[in-house]
């Protein structure tokens, strides 16, 4: 395989102007605000963009709205992991000469939108899952979490999920943009209302309005960027099912393949990673992902995160923005993993800033634990 390490870099990132509860802005408004903010962060303009990437809407719609005529366009949409996967696709497109400045955007009025997309009654999920009560992500992921508890112990799994929720909230309290910053104790977690057993309220991600964008460009163009470039070392992507009922193993995601592949392509190991940005649609997603990526073995994640190891001051920095659990989650959260990773590597995170991180692993999960994209980023 061709060595593509440090052939492209992320040079600009930002959210839309307002995130959280923003009832007067559309999906496209969030896309556009984030796009212009990220380009400003990069020291570029919309006229520099010739590659356009998004998920959840068509680039026909987005390009028209932004006034872009791209020479490369990509609407890969496999859930919240899409925006991590777009990094690899942009890297391939730039190295192939199809574009040299790629803009990747996300925008979703997940909390305030007035319409909800309907499903196709002819799809397998509509025929074979919905009639039996599989009505959305909390139910689907809860079944997977219940299987994990059956295999490894209910109280053991529950404490692992609690550790993730409480630690992530502590990071959110250091992030001015986080939606939920109230104190959360373990008692608060355990006493929160049930959503879909075994999930309490604080096991579940937020539902917010938000947009995000990043700019990725060639190594040559990155030299002239406004800020220090964040290099892409390696990436991998895959998916192994769509319906939760067809998931090969409810305790293992396809990150078991993408994690090792991304690390190998990057030329680094688990021990080299300074920050892990792990998609946290639910607390269980984090446990299953840590094991699948190989940071710990099957059934070991609750011990791995024990004693607030992933909280501020712990020795395994993870989800330092406050995550989808406490910072923001507009529907497809993967974009915001990238924003925090870049900011941490550039030393821009204020009170939550880590001590000189050099390498970050990002892992996005999409669908019903269906797809993953894994990327390793670095800074000189």
TrEMBL record:
Residues 236-378 form the Thiolase C-terminal domain. One of its GO terms (molecular function) is acyltransferase activity. InterPro entries: Thiolase-like (IPR016039), Thiolase_C_2 (IPR055140). Pfam families: Thiolase_C_1 (PF22691). SUPFAM superfamilies: Thiolase-like (SSF53901). This is Thiolase C-terminal domain-containing protein. It comes from marine metagenome. The lineage of its organism: unclassified sequences, metagenomes, ecological metagenomes.
